[in-house]
Amino acid sequence: MKKFTFNLKITVLSCITMFFVLSSGFIHREDSRTYIQNVLNRHYDTEGQNVPLKRYEINITNNGFCRYRKVYTNGKEEYFAMNLSRFKDVDFYGSGQRGILCLRTNNDDVIVQTRNDKAGAIDTMGTYMAIPLKDIDVEELNTLAEHFRNWNRELLASAKKE
């Protein structure tokens, strides 16, 4: 009887262990793309503009493009886009209450376009993308920078495989 209960305990313990191992494989941790987009949208500073904004959009696509679009109340539109595989570094200028996040690239890798501007439409390239942020602490900025670097490494690794 003791051998039976010992074998039963081992079987039950093995089943519980296997359940935890299998179920932990289905819990997805938040990937860098989702984390970056959520932080940028949560801390975006709509008052940090020279002209009032009607709306803005920040998207990080599955293939690694960071797209940032601003539509002002006067109708002017500004559009910035960069491939995060060209990402070089991130800087933050300001304080935790209000500042500018600069995403820097290797070369002129940021697409810059304007529409409905009195000065005329612009279609050029830049070396950085500036995003105004507010109410963000240093720890979250460091985590955000690390997620940008991780996403950049993932994109570069997937490009080498192809």
As residue ranges, the low-confidence spans are: 24-30
| Helical percentage | 25-40%
Which strand-content bin applies to the residues?
25-35%
Structural class: alpha+beta
Count every helix, treating DSSP H or I runs of 4 or more residues as helices.
Answer: 3
* Widest sheet, order of strands: 1-2-3-6-7
Overall geometry comes to elongated
Secondary-structure element string: HHEEEEEEEEH
Integer average pLDDT: 85
Largest sheet: 5 strands, antiparallel
* Alpha carbon gyration radius: 23 Å
Q: How many beta-strand elements?
A: 8
Instruction: Note the gap between the termini.
Output: 60 Å
Describe this protein's structure.
There is one protein chain. This protein is an alpha+beta fold and 162 residues long. Helix content is 36%, strand content 35%. The chain contains three helices and eight strands. It has helices at residues 2-24, 32-42, 138-161, and strands at 53-60, 65-72, 77-83, 87-94, 98-105, 110-115, 123-126, 128-134. The chain starts with a helix and ends with a helix. The model is unreliable at 24-30 (pLDDT under 50).
